[in-house]
Amino acid sequence: MPQRIIQTALILFLVGLAPVVAQTPIPEFTISAAPSVVTVVQGQVASLAVTVACNTASLKAVADCNARPEFGIHLSQLPFGVQAQIAPGRVGVNTVELHASSEAGLGSSRVQATVTAGDTTQVQTFLLNVRPAPAAPPPPVVKAEVVKPSPVVHWEHHMAIAKTPEDLDRLANELGKDSWELVSVTTRQTRGSTEWVGFFKRAKR
After folding, report:
1. Rg (Cα) of the chain, in Å, rounded?
2. How far is residue 171 CA from its own chain's centroid?
3. What is the pLDDT confidence band of residue 20, given thresholds at 50, 70 and 90?
4. Alpha-carbon distance 197 to 165, whole Å?
5. Residues 85, 48: Cα–Cα separation, whole Å
6. pLDDT tier, 21 (very low <50, low <70, confident <90, very high otherwise)
């Protein structure tokens, strides 16, 4: 009889304990990471958006989540030469900058984004592709400028004699119509009279 009582009491204890064991804490928040595939080029920067959303399934979880001053965000399994710049997390969208050095390891890697606050830890995985930097364009080809020698101009000359300056001016205008250019003017005495002598030139035709 005592043995049966002990067995009955043990069964009742285990039955009462089962709901307690089965209970799991409700997470305060959930996270998502976008885009699911991030591509960064050596020597450049790419961005990842980690969104923290409070769990509306529980009023207590929502209250605890909104009361958190910050959330810890951490990225693990980053490839060689890639560093993450992360500000203190908050509810909403958090931008993570991924800086790839010029010697970052090429290829694809599975990276884990972990967010922790209170008793809740959430993990999201995304694919990080590191691509080589584009090759520098070749320097422009500078063509040597070929300087063509100036053509040699051959001149022909003409002399006009006038009795007065006005006559010389009239002759110069007439000769100018035929491309003659007045170079200089001088005077001379001929038999007691002054003459004006104009010297003209033009390119030889």
Report:
1. 49
2. 71
3. very low
4. 9
5. 10
6. very low
Let me know: does 91 contact 101? Beta carbons within 8 Å.
no
Let me know if 71 is exposed, middle or buried by CB neighbors in 10 A (0-12, 13-18, 19+). buried
Q: 99: how many CB neighbours lie within 10 A of its CB? A: 15
Q: What is the pTM of this model?
A: 0.57
C-alpha 161/C-alpha 178 separation (Å) is 17
Rounded Cα–Cα distance for residues 52 and 61 (Å):
13
* 58 residue type, one letter: S
* Residue 181 φ/ψ, nearest 5 degrees: -115, 135
Q: How confident is the model at residue 39 (pLDDT cuts 50, 70, 90)?
A: very high
DSSP tag of 163: S
pLDDT at 97 over 90: yes
Residue 45 has pLDDT above 90, yes or no: yes
Q: Are 84 and 97 in contact (CB under 8 A)?
A: yes
- Backbone φ and ψ of 139, nearest 5°: -65, 150
